[in-house]
Amino acid sequence: MSPRAQDLAGAAWAALGGDPAALAGVRLAGDGGLPSAFAVSDLAAATVAVAALAVGELLHALGGSLPAVTVDRRLASFWFAKSIRPIGWHLPPTWNAIAGDYAAADGWIRLHTNAPHHRAAAERVLGRARDKAEVTGAVARWRIEDLESAIVDEGGCAAAMRSRQAWDSHPQGRAVAAEPLVNLVATDRAPQGAWTPCQTRPLAGIRVLDLTRVLAGPVASRFLAGYGATVLRIDPPDWNEPPIVPEVTLGKRCARLDLREPAGRGRFEALLGKADVLLCGYRADALDRLGYGAAARRTLAPGLIDVRLDAYGWSGPWAHRRGFDSLVQMSTGIAEAGMRWKAAAEPVPLPVQALDHATGYLLAAATIHALTLRATRGHATQARLSLARTAKLLIDQGEGLSAPPFAPETAADVAPDTEVTPWGEARRLLPPVIIEGVPMRWDSPAVDLGSAEPAWPGSQ
Prior knowledge:
Elements: H1 3-16, E1 26-29, H2 40-61, E2 69-72, H3 73-79, E3 84-86, E4 100-104, E5 107-111, H4 116-126, H5 132-139, H6 144-153, E6 158-160, H7 164-169, H8 171-177, E7 183-189, E8 207-211, H9 216-226, E9 230-235, H10 245-248, E10 252-256, H11 262-273, E11 277-280, H12 286-289, H13 294-300, E12 305-310, H14 325-332, H15 334-341, H16 354-377, E13 379-386, H17 387-395, E14 419-421, E15 424-428, E16 433-435
Parallel strand pairs: 1-2, 8-9, 8-11, 9-10, 11-12, 12-13
Antiparallel strand pairs: 2-16, 3-15, 4-5, 5-6, 7-13, 14-15
């Protein structure tokens, strides 16, 4: 590995409690990097490596050999953008008509308005807008922190651009800095089960109940499905994310439930009771408000591996704040550092949504490590991660990087098999990692949200 990738992988692996000696079994292939003020390609390679190391740790802990891991730095970076290659059709635009960065009276602010209710919240503050030009005029009259607070108070999503120094002195920045990268806590004793990992499909037989949306959580559950886990994603009746769904539902079943209705709650509780893993990306207090706090979850599912993600950390004044990768980049100083690095007149984000993807692989690693602890020590585990804490991991590596750009993608980078999706045929990039003797593969193509029944395969 490169020194920075080694440092990043070492920090993440240590946060999981992994054996440092295992890092010697990781080989990093490929040269170059994505253009950025930060070590984005090192982060991609490191977090993919850590997720793969967790797979090897699981097999080794239960009597198998410790497999070698090879990460393709270039492919890992490409997977941090998009893995799917549509044939004869196109993915919808990533952003809606008014999402983006705007100059306010005293700086820059980003509005995240892809979800209809988030756009409506912004328009309640700024007025109805047909396009960015109308929003530009409205934003210009505001101070960035006042507008950020007004939109957040309305239930929307916005982030003022801060420098790293401003974030480090902000109450939320200080809170995040005090949190571990991966917060692992043993909860209760796990009932004795019959599951043991298969050498070639190590997660076969594991049921993952996936309550995650754009983008880190779905990346995690996609990785878990790639090694055999049964992933059932549950979305509310009215939720959709068209630009992302073909990318992240590979290998999963996707259903809908309304957890505010008795029938939906009953189905959810039955599903949770048979799950090995709950992967949740709701805001920190969302499950509690639905009546499914930590104690209730353990009652419904003794031995549950409870893995949760949020945007801005689990403590501090913003612990319950809505957030996405692009907003966290603005808050934590990443976009401001990119602006200085490129000598640009506006915020410069990372070239990919690296906080989402990196946190996704760390979530997968935490899940697999927790399965190892359950199988070897007999206890369940709670894991907590956040985009803001992953941002600190990246930022702490420093700025001012330069690396030759990657060679352009070729047909040799894409797997030969055709994936038949609801939108048309597609192909995928080759996997970014090779675990010796343990192929990454998915048992089903990408599917649309709500296309399956909310039931585990084989159950009535």
